[in-house]
Specification:
It is built from 12 helices and 16 strands. It is an alpha+beta fold. The model has no long low-confidence stretch (mean pLDDT 88).
């Protein structure tokens, strides 16, 4: 995404219209020039790259557009690493200790670097040259990091990413967002709700799968204290929304005018006819490593129970619960499984409240025993569904033992 200083927009009545780059020859050439520049700078420092980009800007008026495109190439398509024979902190200590053995003199620097290179060659078992010692001394500074990998996008893809980032930037200061998701494929709803859950967004959901849902999201400026992190999380939802077929979004924005230093309440709207393109994969992300490891481990179990990901939607007042898994036996018996791992107290309280509201007899809750439920205000003894406790990892065997004991008829 873009930083706030790189956002470009114009006013249209009481609405904001973000900058959008059409695929004209001039814009495509600009994108290609920047992509070629990044590709040619592999193996060079971030400082050298920044200097080259600054030279490309010149004194032209479109410098903010170029900076925005370069920012996306740097943050989304580039890998920078600290390159040094050893940890720069330890390397500095070694070189400084060698230089302290005699009177300080500039002419001794090559000899000290040579001595340090020899010591490192012996201790590391690889050849270390004096110039590597010199470049590694302060390799941990951001400007000295090396561009080690660049995955070049096409010019068209970079323009699409830029247009999306300009839209996302509007949500950094959103007050409220309302999404009307019309009747869609159930899988699209689930993917959207999964991202809402993944980004820990505060949502009020009404409706049902057959007719559609209205999702009201609190924005970062609606909180008691505006949260930059929450604003970024809300902005990350937009690429996920683009995977839904039919929808309409209306956002209320708290926009601060830089000239008058006043805050205005403006609007922004978007719908599924937009030309924006998502860079998110259409697959379902896992909420946590615990959930992912459980899913991967299940395939190694010798059981008739089949594990399915996020098949059911459980409508709740003001929300929707999407259990992490459904377990299906050839006899037709099914269970829903929700895994509660490492989450904040407010999330725990909400999750256990959802479980109570769901009032399902086929739901199993797997809870980490590391969670401080009492501190979160949760009395697990009052929960109306069975709980399977786990430590660092949730074993499929724990769940199988529970459901086999609860459903002996499924065993034949």
């Amino acid at each position: 995404m873009l930083t706030s200083d790189l956002l470009i927009y114009r006013y249209q009545g009481e609405s904001l219209v973000p900058k959008a780059l059409s695929p004209t020859p001039a814009h495509l050439q600009m994108a290609q020039t920047l992509i070629t520049t990044f590709a040619s700078m592999q193996g060079r420092s971030r400082h050298d790259l920044d200097q080259t980009l600054q030279d490309l800007e010149g004194d032209q008026t479109d410098y903010r557009i170029k900076r925005g495109l370069a920012h996306l190439l740097s943050s989304s398509f580039s890998t920078f690493e600290t390159v040094s024979p050893m940890d720069p902190v330890d390397l500095r200590q070694l070189v400084f200790s060698l230089s302290a053995q005699g009177a300080p003199a500039p002419q001794k620097a090559p000899m000290i670097l040579e001595h340090a290179a020899q010591q490192l060659t012996q201790s590391l078992g690889v050849t270390v040259e004096p110039h590597q010692v010199q470049s590694g001394l302060y390799a941990d500074l951001k400007e000295n990091q090396i561009l080690v990998q660049f995955e070049a996008p096409t010019p068209e893809a970079l323009l699409h990413r830029y247009n999306l980032a300009q839209v996302q930037g509007l949500f950094y200061r959103a007050y409220q967002v309302v999404i009307d998701a019309y009747r869609n494929d159930p899988g699209e709803y689930k993917l959207l709700f999964r991202y809402i859950k993944l980004f820990s967004l505060m949502a009020y959901i009404e409706g049902q799968a057959d007719h559609g849902f209205t999702i009201t999201l609190d924005g970062p400026t609606s909180l008691f204290q505006a949260s930059t992190r929450y604003g970024l999380a809300l902005a990350k939802l937009i690429p996920a929304l683009l995977h839904v077929t039919k929808w309409r979004l209306t956002a209320t924005l708290n926009h601060r005018d830089s000239s008058s230093q006043t805050t205005q309440r403006l609007r922004y709207s978007l719908n599924s006819d937009t030309a924006l393109q998502s860079h998110y994969p259409p697959g379902k992300p896992f909420d946590s490593l615990i959930e992912e490891q459980f899913y991967q481990s299940w395939s190694r179990q010798k059981t008739d129970w089949v594990l399915e990901r996020e098949v059911d939607l459980i409508p709740l007042p003001g929300s929707v619960m999407i259990p992490d898994f459904r377990l299906v036996h050839p006899t037709g018996k099914t269970y829903l499984l929700e895994i509660v791992g490492y989450w904040r107290p407010d999330y725990l309280k909400k999750k256990f409240a959802q479980v109570q509201k769901a009032n399902r007899t086929d739901l199993i809750l797997a809870v980490s025993d590391r969670l401080n439920l009492e501190k979160a205000g949760v009395n697990w003894k009052q929960v109306n569904v069975p709980i399977v406790w786990f430590k660092q990892k949730l074993s499929p065997r724990q769940i199988l033992d529970h459901i086999n004991a609860a459903s002996p008829e499924a065993l034949g």
